[in-house]
Each structure stands twice: as structure tokens, then as C-alpha cells.
Design goal:
The chain is α+β, with helices and mostly antiparallel strands. The chain has helices spanning 8-11, 28-31, 52-64, 113-121, 137-142, 150-153, 181-193, 233-242, 281-288, 294-299, 339-355, 373-378, 413-427, 429-433, 457-470, and strands at residues 18-20, 45-48, 68-72, 85-89, 96-99, 104-108, 125-126, 160-166, 172-176, 199-206, 208-209, 220-229, 250-258, 269-277, 302-309, 326-334, 364-369, 399-407. The protein has a seven-stranded antiparallel β-sheet with strand order 15-12-14-13-17-18-16, with helices on one face. A five-stranded antiparallel β-sheet has the order 5-6-10-8-9. Strand 8 and strand 9 (172-176) form a beta hairpin.
Amino acid sequence: MSTLTPPPSAYFAQTSAEIIIPTAESKIHDIIHRWTDERLSNPALVVIPSNTTDITAAGKYAAENRLTLLVGGGGHKVVPINEKTLYLDMHRFKNIDVDTNNMLVTFGGGVSNQELLEALYSHGVYTTYANSGAVGMVGLTLGGGFTGLSSLHGLAMDNVVAFEGVTASGEYITIDITSTGEERALFDVLCGAGAGLLVIASMTMHIYQLSSLQLKENKEFWVRKWIFPGAAIETAAEFFKSLFPAKENMLPVLIFARSPPSSPFPGQPILILTVTYFGPSAEAEAIVDPLITPEITKLAIDTNTTFVPFVKMFEGTKMFDIRGGFKSQNTARCMGFSTTSIVEAFQRWKQFGDEVEDARPFTVTLIVGYNPSMTIANGSSSDPEGRGRRPFAGRARPFFGQTLTWYQKRESQPFVEKFIADTLAILRKADDEKGYTPNTLPNNFRDGSAIELGYTKEELVEIRRVHRLWNKGGLFYDILDDTASWSL
């Protein structure tokens, strides 16, 4: 590890920041809280700032020592951390200010989805959240942010109205939807392609009244779940497709998973189909019940309807929040899936689990659909907040298929990468036949990702121009410029 000058302890003694100087004996998970071990080793230095002055000092120190400054919030981004990294841990930036008069919330750069959910819930309001409470709100937004509430309010990035933070040059700035010139260009690109542009100290988003969802009196939403054996994949796929086009309040999800150790047949492939409805339960039942055929009833291993407290919406995904292990998410956003492609994707997932034992228990594939009407409307050139200038390709695509891979052995990596590539290609077949270009979710970019799958050519020109302007000298890690082939 290279020598840092001046010594970090002396340099940061004049600040409020805490520092961690890793040694050869340091255990990485004692230093950095990160969701995945992919591309993870000890950084040169960890800085935990308490204020924006500390952030400016960290940026200056990184530049003087030719280190790449990488900002960590929720820790879910799969980007390289190594001996050339100054890791800026934002977990002290936890302020949350709820303004119900103007229906806005301002929160710190280290706030997670769970923390924001709980704070807003106590005021009877909500915003667009990720599908995991452990994900950072800032990171969600910088990559676009598809959420379970996107049918109602669009992408997370569509709901941002302001950022405050520190630039690569050390300047503290506030930018919002009223900004002009290059500051407005920066604001727009931050919403969707923003990683590596600004250390975000706080951001402001729209909020919405929980009462507008017309949930049960105790603020619970409706969820119907079916569990099918793997052999029923064709029936499950047809049932899933029958739920579309989806109503704005509805989120259908089909999951390929393994039965838990406590089940009568542990480790067997199963299909979990859930329909979540953020609205009156009577509406949900009126939509779903007529679609249930005798064959569905016969083949389902289990069926149940539950009412989930809104504040506990992340309970079902907590098992995937565990830190450590090699994990990644990879997404194909599509105009549609054929039954054949869903069946083929299931068979490829099953084959992968049979062949790669350490990836078998927790690797899942998800088939998700929603109503894109609001996402499309937000991207209109006539939108009053100018959201049409925010980079995000394929707003009209109502479906995505996603692999969530989780394995323990480094030597499994080539098999994992092959599985990911095969699955995304399978799920894109119906789109390929109709001439649609491949598309993905920028939130899931890794180094070496095909960036052009997340943005249009015109958007990429502007994104790169803005990144060159605001990240002069390459102080911040910029995944858009990291085209290296991927390896652990």
C-alpha cells in the first residue's frame, strides 16, 4: 500500500471527520459496510465526514494522493474498492426534514430507504422507495430508481426537486428545478446518471399523502401470493401475463426460488407469484379473482392473502439485505415476455442451481411488470418540472426480468457470468423479434457494463459532457468511464 502524505491522522485532525487507516490485518467488513464482496478489498483510507467541510477536506486529500474518491451510502453499488480508493462513508448524514405544507422531504446523503420510510410514515406521507430498506436513497435516485410505487409516481429520480453537495473542485452548491445553465444540466444528469458527479450531502423529494392510497384503516396494503411447483411454470407464466396491462396501483411479480430448509422438500425449485395492490382491497380482488382458473387453484401448493402494514413493506426482502458474499443484480427491461421465454429462463435458472452448488440456495430470478403511464408522462417534453431532460431510456417498457445472483466461492464467477448473460438474452428474445433495442436499469450497472443499454445516444453525449465538466481530473469514481472487463 502506498504511503499517504501528509499522514491522514495529522491531516484530518483539524476536521470533524473520523478516519480508518486499513492495515494488512484489517478485516474488510469491519471497515466498510457493503452488500456484496464483488470487487472489494481494503481501501487506502476510509473517511467518515460529519459536515460538508469534512467532505471538501477528503476530496482535497484524495486529489493530493492521487486516490479515487468513492462515496458510500447504502453500499449496494457493485464498484471496485481497492488500495487506490478513498472511501467516503456518509452514514453520519442522517437528517430528515418533513415539510407537509409543501409536500417535500429533505434528507441526508446517508439515509436508507427504511429510515426514510419510517420517518415519513410517522407524518402520514410517503415517497418512492426501493424494494429493499437497506438501499440508500441517494444511490437509488442516481441510477433512476424503479420502485414498487413507480406506477403511481414514476421513477425515484422523477421525484427529486433539489440537491446539496460538494463538487470535485471542493465547492458547496445547491441546485434544484429552478437552476439554469450548467447547474441545471448537472441537476438533470444527477437524476439518472449521477454517480461520480457530486458528493450529495442532502436531497429533496416530493412526498404524497398515505390517505390517497385508500388503504385499510391501519394503513395496510393487499398482497395475494401463490406458490407453485417448478413443474407448473407454463401455467404460472400464463397467469402472470394475464395480469397485464396492470392497473396503476398493482405490482405483479413472478419469482424463481428454492424452497426453504424448513419445507417438506427443501431446496426444490418453486415459483412464487405475488400481486401487490396499493389501493382498496375490493379493487384488487375485483381485478384478480376473475383471472383465477380451476387449473391455477389445482396446481398451487399454497395461496394466501395478507394485509401488510405500509411501514413494514421491506420485511419480505430482508433476507437479501445480509452483507457479504458475492452478489449482483442484472436487469433486462423489456416491452414484453413470451410464455416460452419465461419457461426457458426458468429452466436456465434451475440448471444453474443444479450445477453451481454455492449459488443454489439464494440465487433468484424475478419477472416484474407494472403500468408505465406515469413514468412516460414524467418524461414528456411538456412536463412542468423538466423531467423529460433527465436521462433514462425506455420509459415505456412495462416489464423487467432480473437475476439476483448470490454465491460464496470466487471460482464460481465464470459460471455466474454465463448464467447472467444467458438469462438476459433469453428474456430479451420477444423484444429482439420485434426490433426493440436491448435496455437495462442503470441502478444495476457494474464496471464493464454496456452503458449504452441504459441511455439513448443523445443522452450519453450530454451525460459525458456534464461528467467531463463537473468531474475534472477524475477525482470521483465514474462507472460510465469504467469499461474494464469484470473480475473479482
